[in-house]
Amino acid sequence: MIVKSRLRWVGHVHRMVDHRLPKIVMYSELSSGYRERGAPRKRYKDSLKRTLSACDIDVQGWSDLATDRSAWRCRIQEATTKFEEERITAANNKRPRRDNPTQTPTPHPCRHCSRICRARIGLISHERACPQRHGQPP
Ligand SMILES: [Zn+2]
What we know:
Blueprint: H1 2-14, H2 21-26, H3 44-54, H4 62-67, H5 69-99, E1 108-109, E2 116-117, H6 120-129
Antiparallel strand pairs: 1-2
The protein binds zinc ion.
The site of zinc ion has 7 residues, from loops.
């Protein structure tokens, strides 16, 4: 749904006349020279590019296609249907691994009582509050 809405919206904005604010904002860039540390922030066009690639739509030529509203709608429908099918297939392929892990996690026994924690972070949390840690009965 998000992918579909995003594609519909960019097509809509692309077809706007050039002086409309949404179009100006979509195609503009900040002129500030100020750069924050670390990786550059994701811009709208970066996430659009990812969406287009994921939907197998030409990243360079999408705007030509979007000029024709009905052609764009057809392309979006086709692309998002395929995107959804692939997403479901990927999720189904992932499921057996999640439901039937080949490797069982190493148990983490408490040093103070008989409790077994499945995750190390759970053990840390448990040991901090373990009733037997200070010699108290469980
Ligand atoms: Zn304990």
